[in-house]
Amino acid sequence: MRGSGDGRGRRAGLAVAVVSLLLALSGCAGAGALGASGRTLVIAIVSNPQMEDAIALADRFEEANPGIRLKFVSLPENQARAKITASTATQGGEFDVVMISNYETRDWAANGWLENLQPYVDGDRAYDGGDFIPSIRESLSYQGSMYAVPFYGESSFLAYREDLFAEAGLTMPERPTWPQIAEFAARLDDPESGVSGICLRGKPGWGENMAPFTTVAHTFGARWFDENWNARLTSPEFRAAARFYVDLVREHGQPGASSAGFAECGTRYAQGQAAMWYDATSMVSTTEDPSSSEVVGKSGYAPAPVLRTPNSGWLYTWSLAIPKVTEDKDAAWRFVRWMTSKEFVHQVGGTFGWNRVPPGCRLSTYEIPEYRRAAEAYAEPTLRGIDQASQQNNISAPVPYRGIQFVGIPEFQDLGTRVGQQLSAAIAGRITVDEALRQSQEYARTVGEAYQEDR
């Protein structure tokens, strides 16, 4: 069977218990306050370039919606997740709108923590909910209704410097394999010139190094749990994937790899200090941004490398949801609608440049002439990656969980981060891969046994 198992009540209770402590420590301010000129919506958002563009355009929303003021709580991903999870799970009411992903949406909807947005979507023909990319829309739906709407969507692919490949006499295959990528990285690694063969995340975190690594593990034939919730982190397949990943980044990756995440790899690649970078398709907002990138127009974009599976790219979306306890849901929806609308896409493109448009969300975005010109190198690989991302294409054996680059259970926030710490320590050379996996297996075994009790 594929997808998450039963025991939802136990998992909901566990989530509340875990995040209650986080909430006590987070010190969130109250939401829905009355400002000097009307209502203030408090919006919890993840800090990255696309979200920062939205914050910069917020005055346009306020001008068009007199009486509504916006207050953003913008935090790095790991911190934002802790605050948002804590507040939403305990129904604390600190935020009127929250940024979540397809990892959380279905379980949170089933737990009754989120407002059903389908009536809002269906009641606004101009909003055009049918314009969302189908796989993205489905990943944010529970029992046929959307409980979050996407701000941007992504799969993963490989960016590579076409100029460096040409100089070295190398050709990127249409469907590269990981062994081929390792060979290219060895050929292109040039420490004397400050150019690493590849950049891969080593920074610990279930949403940091575990995202790319889990896609590698799956295409190597590994899985976190078998269909009976037995932990499989010391299996031959998982061990082979971990050794490959650690060896590749240690031998031909970036300096300080154990502490490098998406942002650090993005900076390094954009500054011309890496020949390849495997990561989220949303990287193009960094790699193709003339204001900050030195490699604009020099990159090719290949599908996520594979080994045993037809595909290896992930499926992920940052989206906006309204907690069930939000008082003024109509005002909250007006903001959510604005930030996820077709009009917003044009506002971003016209203000910051079309390479900064939130990608992988609306089909109509890919029909805009200006965007098509700006995204010529990466639009089609992005759409193809999102369309082909499925467990059937990406995982070679049955698993009891949903997700491709994550395990879709509440405990994975903790489990994935713990395993990520072990992998990061192996990259840093503080422990061996086998030591990392033995400890990781114990973490996973405890989680798996709890699900076995629910069967």
Account of the protein in words:
InterPro entries: Bact_solute-bd_prot1 (IPR050490), SBP (IPR006059). This is Sugar ABC transporter substrate-binding protein. Pfam families: SBP_bac_1 (PF01547). It is built from 20 helices and eleven strands. The chain is an alpha+beta fold. It has two domains: 216 residues, D-Maltodextrin-Binding Protein, domain 2 (3-Layer(aba) Sandwich); 222 residues, Periplasmic binding protein-like II (D-Maltodextrin-Binding Protein, domain 2), CATH 3.40.190. Helix 10 crosses helix 11, helix 11 crosses helix 19 and helix 19 runs antiparallel to helix 20. The two termini are 13 Å apart. The N terminus is likely disordered.
Write the layout of secondary structure elements.
Elements (H helix, E strand, L loop, with lengths): L7 H19 L7 E2 L2 E9 L2 H8 L1 H7 L3 E8 L1 H13 L7 E5 L3 H6 L7 H5 L11 H6 L1 E2 L2 E2 L2 E6 L1 E6 H6 L10 H11 L21 H10 L16 H17 L9 H9 L5 E5 L3 H4 L11 E5 L12 E6 L7 H11 L2 H11 L16 H6 L4 H10 L2 H4 L17 H17 L4 H22 L1
Helix pairs in contact: 1-4, 10-11, 11-19, 19-20
Features:
alpha+beta; D-Maltodextrin-Binding Protein, domain 2; globular; disordered N terminus
What does the overall shape look like? globular
CATH topology of the largest domain: D-Maltodextrin-Binding Protein, domain 2
| CATH homologous superfamily title of the largest domain | Periplasmic binding protein-like II
- What would you call the structural class? alpha+beta
Number of structural domains: 2
> Could you say what the CATH architecture of the largest domain is?
3-Layer(aba) Sandwich
Low-confidence stretches: 1-14, 16-30, 33-37
Largest sheet: 6 strands, mixed
Q: Please give the count of helices.
A: 20
Roughly how many Å is the radius of gyration?
21 Å
Pfam family, one: SBP_bac_1
InterPro entries: Bact_solute-bd_prot1, SBP
Protein name: Sugar ABC transporter substrate-binding protein
Organism: Saccharopolyspora cebuensis
